[in-house]
Amino acid sequence: MASGTLDTQTGTPLPATGTRADIRARTLRTDRWWQAPLLTVVLLTAWLLYGLVRAFMQKWYWVADYHYLTPFYSPCISTGCEPEAAHFGRFLPDWPILPFAALTLPFLLLFRLTCYYYRRAYYRSYWASPPACAVPDLHKRYTGETRFPLIVQNSHRYFFYAAALISLINTYDAILAFHGKGGGFGFGLGNVILVGNVILLWAYTASCHSCRHIIGGRLRNFSRHPLRYRAWGLVSRLNTQHMQLAWITLGTLMITDAYIMAVAAGWISDLRFVG
Ligand code: FES
């Protein structure tokens, strides 16, 4: 396009070939583009503070009558854990600075921290790099994820394996929680919450981009692998909801933990249907 050409819609001069448009405004967006990053900061910070307090509280994590164990303390492996709550043994020292589930919490945190969706969310909101589409980056330099520390983001698939294993443990906890007062089978609102949380955790984990690649990747064609093709189709459909599942599971984790804390502390009674 030759220098001196006019924009056909606005009549303003267009820049010469090879040069950038001389736009002085920080952005030409007129919508409230800052709302999404702001909301992300508020919600993620609130969730992290809640999680931090609960992980180190070291009480109100287990309802002995019904065998409810909050996912924030699963598996409970500290010598400080209630013996009945420690389904996999107690071998970590009971220190105030060590969460009772210190073996799994770091992996869950790293799984979410390196998640493709959360990366987008916190790069935009906390790091403003960039805060939104068509809004300039706050930072002068951009080095991508090709060098330390962000190169670590590429290890996401390994945290996916850990998260899948931890989802199995959460499933086991949810099954053990069908326990009535005094023994035998029991079923209450806590079970509905625990099972709902586990189903959604599986949905979030299965919707992971790495999971999708592990299931459908490295194949020359799908026709010789019909099962993997079907599984890939399923996780691909889930994958389209990955962002929603990322937020929903933060909510269900918090609700599950808060409910079990409230019952364990005696603030409320579990609504029992059976046992
Ligand atoms: S991409 Fe989000 S959990 Fe893997």
Account of the 3D structure:
This protein is mostly helical and 275 residues long. The protein is built from eight helices and four strands; from the N terminus they run H-E-E-H-H-H-E-H-H-H-H-E. Strands 1-2 form a two-stranded antiparallel sheet. Strand 1 and strand 2 form a beta hairpin. It starts with 34 loop residues before the first helix and ends with a strand. The mean pLDDT is 93. It binds FE2/S2 (inorganic) cluster. FE2/S2 (inorganic) cluster is lined by residues 115-117, 156, 160, 208-210, 242.
Keywords:
275 residues; mainly alpha; two-stranded antiparallel sheet; 8 helices; elongated; binds FE2/S2 (inorganic) cluster
Main sheet record: 2 strands, antiparallel
SS elements, strand count:
4
State the share of residues found in helices, binned by percent: 40-55%
> Biggest sheet: strands side by side, in what order?
1-2
Integer average pLDDT: 93
| Radius of gyration over all CA atoms, rounded | 24 Å
Q: Ranges with pLDDT <50 over ≥5 residues?
A: none
Write the element-wise H/E pattern from the N-terminal end onward.
HEEHHHEHHHHE
Structural class: mainly alpha
Residues in β-strands, percent:
under 5%
Ligand types: FE2/S2 (inorganic) cluster
**How many H/I helices?**
8
Globular, elongated, flat, extended or rod-shaped: what is the shape?
elongated
Could you give the distance between the termini?
Answer: 78 Å
